[in-house]
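During the second year of the project, the team shifted from modelling isolated chains to modelling whole assemblies. The rationale, set out in the original proposal, was that interfaces cannot be judged from single-chain predictions alone. As a representative example for this report, we include one of the complexes processed in the last quarter. Its constituent sequences, exactly as entered into the pipeline, are reproduced here:
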Amino acid sequence: MKEKNNPFNITKASDFTDEQIKSFWVEYPGGFEKIMKPTSPMPMIIRGGKGSGKTHLMRQYSFPLQKLRHTKDLLEGITKDGYLGIYMVCGGINANRFYGKGQSTEIWNSIFAYYMDIWLSQMVLKTTSEIYTDNNELKNVEKKICSEILNLFDSIDNRPNTLIGLLDLLVSIQKSIDFDVNNCAITKKLETRISVSPAKLIFGIPKILKKLLPSMKKILFVYLIDEFENLQEEQQKYINTLVRERQSPSTLKIGGRKYGFRTKLTLSAGEDIKKGSEFELLELDVNFQKKKEYKKFIDLLCTKRLTKNDFIKESSSVEISNFFDTYLNSPFEQERTKFIIKKYDGQERPYFSSLKSKLRDGFDRFGLSGISKKAEIDGIIERLSVKDYPLVEKFNVFQFYQSWSQGKNLKAASIAISKECIKFINKKDGTSSGYGTYSYHFNYWKEDLLIQLFRECDQRTEYVDFSTFIELSHGLPRNLLIILKNIYRWSEFNNEKPFQGGKISIDAQTRGVQEASEWFYSDARGANEDGRLIRDSISRLGELFRACLFSDKPVEVSSAGFSYDPSKITAKAQRIIDLAEEWSLLVKIQEGEKNRNSTRIDSKYVLNKMISPLWQLPVARRGTILFVPEEVNAIFDPEQKDSFKELLNKRLVKMNAPFKKTDKSYDLFGLFK
Amino acid sequence: MTDYTIFYKDYFNNTADVSKLGPWDIFVSTYSLDERIVKVFDAISANEKYWLIHKEYNFASGEVPSASGFIKVYDPTQREDEADFISNFFGSLRITDKTKLCIDITAFTRPTLIFLMYFLKNSLKLRKFELLYSEPNYYSAQEKTVFAEDVTKVSQIAGYEGKHVPDNLKDVLIIGTGYDHSLITHVAEDKEYAQKIKIFGFPSLKADMYQENILQVQKAVEAIGTHIAPPFAYYAPAYDPFVTASILNEILENLKEEGNYTNIYLCPLGTKAHVLGFALFYLNQCFDAPISIIYPHCSYKNKKDSVGLSGVWKYVIEFN
Amino acid sequence: MEDELLKKILIFHETIWDRKASGDAIKKWLSYFEEKSAGNPDERLHALYLLSKFMYFGTDAVKEMLKALYRDLYKYPLISAIRKANNDSIDVDFINKTFQIDLDSTRFLGLGNPSESGTFLLYYFRQANCLNRNLFIHGHQIFSRENDKYTIKDQTIKHYIFIDDLCSSGSQAIQYSKEILDELKRLKPDVKVYYFTLIGLKEGVEKVRAKAKFDKVEAVFILDESFKCFNDNSRYFQNVNADYITKDFAKTICLKYGEKLSPTKPLGWADNQLLLGFGHNIPDNTLPVISSKGNPSIQWSPIFERIEKR
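Output from the structure prediction step:
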């Protein structure tokens, strides 16, 4: 069989040609138009984490894609669309050169604004030229158009009377600015003559075109400015000013990474642009995280990839999840845990060895309630055992630890657990029988306990099933594509013929997820040392969650979220939290967390699910840990990180046998590395 | 003139052979803690010798060499960008076309090396000078060796800024790959919309370094793609600036033939020999074109990234 | 650590190893090593570690090396000489025309008989460098025989370039020198004969330089003693995590299986202990655990199989 290419190889819009954007396009349930609002004159800021699909979306509404969609009659098509998308990427301007070189910020602001106007104007004119190729409507008014555009300039020597000539003029102005700016580094002189006021061309040219070309009467000129993060703060102020001072028939849609929006200020005396009245905000990944249409969208996206790459037929309806191997449902997860029976045949299972060791140690150091002789420990183990169902055993051990932490009579506790366990097993249907029952708690804790079990038995945590991957992607479509891309790689490596008749193994799924997770984490780079600080902090946070998960008696189930009182932490800690959120390693829960002990609403964040696998955390999220300010500072403030280990130990002592709050003899941190 | 491979290059197996070269009027090297840097500096015969101290190395006090006799040290108190650093230092040396100048480029930061070529050619108008580049036995942490990190910004190098066009549809980014995958990712994402072409250093300095390079470049695969063959990947010897320049010329010719570019960005992240090749190519062929050299400037440079000295290359740079 | 090693191998498999190290093949190969047991070093982990350090030069890499061989070892010195003899001329047309004269009087040959890898490489060498087939001959075409006398077949040829893939001990090159060069140099004292190889072990290359009559002996890559896997200054164990991997244990397992796989050379020919392979074959200097296909006394399934010369 001819080797096929990985259908998920391309994960970024920038790697797609315009034709591919069109061909691989998948419409969001309900339509992207409702989200993007291309005919709305209100400016829009589109913020998205990496992989949210921001560029993909913006390109979809750009002129090159309009051209591809309206091959028969471009002008008619654009008129019907009601907008003309002038798409530019800020990276193309190489904005970092408008800085330093011995010149003041004010001078650079003026030069940058001038350059940006000339740049965008070239795009408008070039696009217009293309739309009206061989069209008399333009030819009839071309001279007038040129004349009116030239009148926008404060002073101009050359006065061409064709659009091509006008374009050439703008090109030569741009090159002249390039020459001045480029040489400034060496000559330390900048003598560019600015011949038009800021924004006059950007807003003036569309006005003139609308006035003189009837077919443009109802068209909105939409400046789609992408990669906003590639502009410096002062330069962003200029664009913000354009947003505030927008003039019909133009508008702006500005796209950028979350971390890339450095300021809301404009160039007018310290004023911000106002959300609601001056622009609307589209947070793309929040949008995806919330809506259940996201799953449907992802299904369509994957089906399209497989169809276009000849893995499945266009007409076939497939359930993507069927391509992945998974475990059969079993009430006590027998399928997933049967390897334990085989591995420890004739040996003591590790959780019992550990329990035994802790009981013996506890007996020697503090005494155990209900246990008068060490030999009775064997009886406890015996009562908690359920040889055929390791997960049930594990749950018994967990309940036992709970009893121990509550100071209960341990012999009696083991007897009670054993009784309930027998009833539970004999029912054999595993369904919840109401809050407070053995069955209820077993189902509540089982995912976390499975992870503990796997770890104790030297198995990596498994991440399987298509629905799991959708969860992990946490609202960023690109994350999902990268997960599938890596799963495919491993599956192909294992010769499983993925999506070609074979089932993708659990091993390939887990390894693929792990690789995608590592990429996402290492990709949070930040500027200067910020990337390292962010990752170090998240690493400490992940370690804490893992340590809690693997403790004898976790307090919160499936916790990968935390809350804290923001008024009590250091500014440095908050800065790192904000950066981590901007780089999507943390996700802010907008409504916060109501503090249990007061009316206060604490800040609440969860770890991005995409990086859960790095600390073997579960995908499902339920519990939130309330951190005291010292803990938040120790995790996120680089100057206080040295106190992290001690604070973590303090927390863990209460969650691990022998549950003595004041016991300083355990160094639990190392146990969970 | 596009056949760079005619330029002179020589290889010396040890410092004993290196010490027989010259003598030069002026010898300049950038200081680092690598054995290969200090050994070559000590072996060279010159009337004046200079150590340059780059702030990115973050030397502790006491780590920096002191001036003595004909050995001088340039250690500016403030961090200078590459243009100021080179202009201030070399501008103070009274170098003419008759000066026998030799520079060890091994420990230069890449942006400084790139600007140095511009400065020597266009500001000092030198027509001929010699450069040295020393090879290690291996890198200290092998494929995990970090040479530079903590990117402050991605920007064009002074003198290599080009005249770009607003049409970005067919932009191309040519990356000379090295081990620092985070730098590759930074620059690739700065020009996310551009088609990426990689130049691998192969033959590598040592036989196993190519595979080490592949491992590191793969960490940036989401940013630059997986291809390792033309037209998305090319090969130029890690030790040869002239072949590197030739390969860049070949890539440019291919792009022109296909009518297939709007703007081109060059970013050399490999060995200094590769970096030199990128600079030579640009200075000879890219004036007034929509081509520039961009670089992810870093605040941290590893002051000891290699072990041993395997050999020394000497390149004779000749400008028309 | 096993995960990390597998990741590396996956990358190599997908990129430069010509997809030769699939997960299946690795699983099968590892099964020949002992399973990990508590308290003992892990044989399989060590095997995987060695595999992750294997240097493989597939067809594309070999072509690039052949380009480098021609351009850097053969062509450049001639170009340099032309320039020096002409006042450092940078007239590219003139230089190329003059070089063409040298090229026309050059012949390329493979070291070894026509079935050996040196000769095999000539096809790719010609292709990669866009050379005329007339520039390639066999060893027997250097001479012609009239009555009982040998003469140089073509007196206009000034350069004979012998090409090889690996110079290990150098004995083959030295043998060739005795068989061909002695006579060649006697008949035409001003002839230049070069031996260029893709990879040369330092000791072997130095031996050829000392004992053979080649005017120049060069390699694209020279491997010093640090490439000998279990050498004192082996580069393969400089940065390893000693909790998991040790050189001594790696050597122990290579010997343990190597002695069965290849009793006379359990760590590769001449105890070279190499981790090296080409797309066209794996040299016998490479550790047998990597490349041997087993024998009646031991079943084995290598990742990079060596095809033995008969």
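The longest strand of chain B covers residues 291-301. The CA atoms of residues 17 and 231 of chain B lie 40 Å apart.
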